[in-house]
Known about the structure:
Shape: globular
Low-confidence stretches: 1-6
Number of helices: 10
Radius of gyration: 18 Å
Largest sheet: 2 strands, antiparallel
Distance between the termini: 49 Å
Amino acid sequence: xxFFFQRRVPRVTTVLVSLTLALSLLSAIxxxxxxxxxxxxxxxxxxxxxxxVTWPFVIGxxxxxxxxxxxxxxxGSDLAVTWGTRRYLLTATTVVLVAGTGxxxxxxxxxxxxxxxxxxxxxxxxxxxxxWARQFPDQPVMAYFVLLVRGxxxxxxxxxxxxxxxxxxxxxxxxxxxxxxxxxxxxxxxARRRIWLxxxxxxxxxxxxxx
Length: 211
């Protein structure tokens, strides 16, 4: 079972938690900072591409900031220790870029989304929980500090909660979270593994033909 106080905290966890706390608290103090770091599709299309990677680290609500830091500390640490820092960062970066880039692309079809400032919310935290639940399907955990669930049930709870928020707040406002959850589901699925193995097999066959 994953405990809140880990015996071993990877350096990557310390960096990500510190970065999230620093940018979120500084943004709370300096009202203009969050606007410069948020994911704003119009600004990204004007060349401010740094927003594609800064938005998940700016959290606009203290309770959401707490959940995100706990997710990075507990679930992120387990993944980093099991996978190694490289694979962990690659997965987290892929989720962030898919959510950010996807939101910007969708904004071309949804004009109302072009000027919206998207902050981190629960996008990265939910994605880490989903990937963790798929990696450790038999490990029990308290979902949102309320329900004791395991693997598939935990994934279902996270997906359901995201859809409920989307129903109440609107799909437009929840696009990064929805895309992050979708990316996490795909990256942790068997379909992704099959696709990767098929591509690797084709690459090996091509190399053998050349030789």
